[in-house]
Amino acid sequence: MSVYLGLPGGLTQSPAFSAPRQETTGRPTVILAYPKIDHEKDYVYHWMPFSLLTLAKPLMASGLVDVVLFDGNQQDAAAWERLLDEHLGRTVCIGVSIMTGGGQIGHALDMVRAAKQHPFCPPVVFGGPHVNVQPEQTAAHPLVDAILQGPGENSMVEYVKALLGRTPRRLVPGLRIDDGGCVVCGTVNPPRTGNLGAYPWKLLDVAKYIRDDPTVASRTLNYVSSKGCVYRCRFCFELTYQRKYSAMAAQDLLDDIAALQAAYGINGVKFYDADWFVNLRRAIGFCDGLIDRGLDLRWAASINPNDILKARRAKLPLLERIAESGCSRLLMGVESGNDRVLNEVVHKEISRAQILDVAGDIAAHGILGSFTFIVGFPDETEAEMEDTYSLMGELRQLDPEPETRVHLFAPYPGTPLWEQALQHGFTAPASLEDWSTFDYYTSLAPWTSEATAARARQETRMRLAPAR
């Protein structure tokens, strides 16, 4: 594959960031696959497969194998077949990452089905968010040879060692193998993975993931710099993942972003961390670093309203530094405009009055607020949903006028609200195939009407035009 040269202003890629090349070293290969996700048709989306990058790094560092990445959001079924033809002969396993919803499970099964039609197809191991909440059901599927539950950084290298005969399978963290007659389980996979490091960008054609984001900048790249969340919202998958919070240090993150900017001419970064501001001093250190280095970068991230309240109590100039450093957008999960729902149902640890206060502070610093809401919780009344819509009306009076996105409540396995949804008549998918049609953008609960779904769509107002 030739090195990409189509960058603005005559920029070319540095050797560390060249387009992906497959080098023959004589070592066996691990194929890591990220199946396609079916998002809403108007979603501005170019998400890099960070789950695979975090797996690839320790695999490459082990020196045991070469790694090849396949992103189904960028490549089609024909490209998958070409990759299998090229690499399958020396591949020790295929690793597949799946999440619940978005059609990814169905695409994963199609990809594995195609792989298993090839002679000498190696074992296929599944991991990712869905495996963590449905391990037994996933492991029992005939197309799945093994699963790895918990952080793959702790288990993937050990799994490869087991395949190479260097360690017993029973010592592989999070391993489960179910052949229908016998179940093999490894050791417990601890939730802590340690600090993140720089990603092995050379495995991807990074230039393909740059896009014109209407809320950030004309050449924006998505990025994940931390894992885990310290909050306990009762609908969120982070509760089931139980990952200990870990993050790249501010200076390491700045170094990596500066290198990406130099290589690709990016002028924006959109962080997809669950909550980018868990460590407030790390956040301020990053902002100060952007200013000190003169990187001239626009950026966006997710924030919990309690992060801003904590910064106030600690007398930290959080929003001031955020604004000065070029942050253009803060995404905040508000969830509801009703205090009972916020406190008793969601456990958001915030009130409607505090949400208005925090949102006003964000707007006062010239930052676009992007607020997400959920309607259709179990036991939520029509009047309580109206409280949510009235809060959105108040927020829209701010300048700059914020974005609002309304989601329908989707029961997520393993969360407290999952059990409550089952008690209220929700029927859970009974197989991995059934999960492939699980769509969190449509009504999934029997108590949610089409009128509720239509109102949610009507009240969703996002900036989808290209950035200026």
From TrEMBL:
Listed name of the protein: Uncharacterized protein
InterPro entries, per database record: BchE-like, Cobalamin-bd, Elp3/MiaA/NifB-like_rSAM, Methyltransferase_Class_B, rSAM, rSAM_horseshoe, rSAM_sf
Domain named Radical SAM core: residues: 216-439
GO molecular function term, any single one: 4 iron, 4 sulfur cluster binding
Keyword terms: Iron, Iron-sulfur, Metal-binding, Methyltransferase, S-adenosyl-L-methionine, Transferase
Domain B12-binding: 27-170
Any one GO cellular component localisation term in the record: cytosol
